[in-house]
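Researcher: I'd like a candidate sequence for this fold, 146 residues long. If you have to choose between options at a position, lean toward the conservative one.
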């Protein structure tokens, strides 16, 4: 086995072991996140929106990789302000201010990607996508839907 391949395999194995150890530690602690308290129907609608945001991020990343500006625009547009406006009123009423303070800027970052995809370097778009993902991580660290 070539040395480079050996190091890659060893690194992958270390990551796998570490991820197992971290997830075992996490599962031992009680979930301290805030439950949003949605009904079953609201939960289904909300989780559908969250999955769509993941699809949008995946599309943006694929578009950046392919240097396809129209793909970036199309992917980002779906999770921008239109999604926020289309969120059912009952869900909007149940989300706390802290959720809205993360969510609103996140939708705006998708809108910013739409605009900047026309002119910015792909590396700048990748950086903006990384910042957007920090918003996603922050929200998922604070809130849960049960």
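Model: Candidate sequence:
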């Amino acid at each position: 086995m070539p040395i480079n391949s050996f190091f890659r395999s060893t690194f992958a194995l270390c990551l796998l072991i570490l991820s197992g150890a971290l997830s075992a530690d996490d599962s031992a602690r009680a979930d301290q996140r805030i439950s949003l308290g949605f009904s079953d129907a609201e939960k289904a609608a909300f989780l559908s929106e969250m999955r769509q945001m993941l699809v949008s991020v995946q599309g943006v990343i694929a578009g950046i990789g392919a240097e396809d500006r129209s793909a970036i625009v199309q992917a980002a547009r779906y999770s921008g302000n239109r999604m926020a406006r289309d969120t059912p009123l009952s869900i909007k009423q149940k989300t706390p201010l802290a959720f809205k303070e993360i969510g609103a800027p996140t939708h705006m970052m998708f809108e910013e990607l739409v605009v900047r995809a026309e002119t910015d370097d792909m590396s700048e778009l990748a950086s903006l996508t990384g910042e957007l993902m920090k918003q996603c991580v922050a929200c998922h660290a604070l809130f849960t839907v049960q």
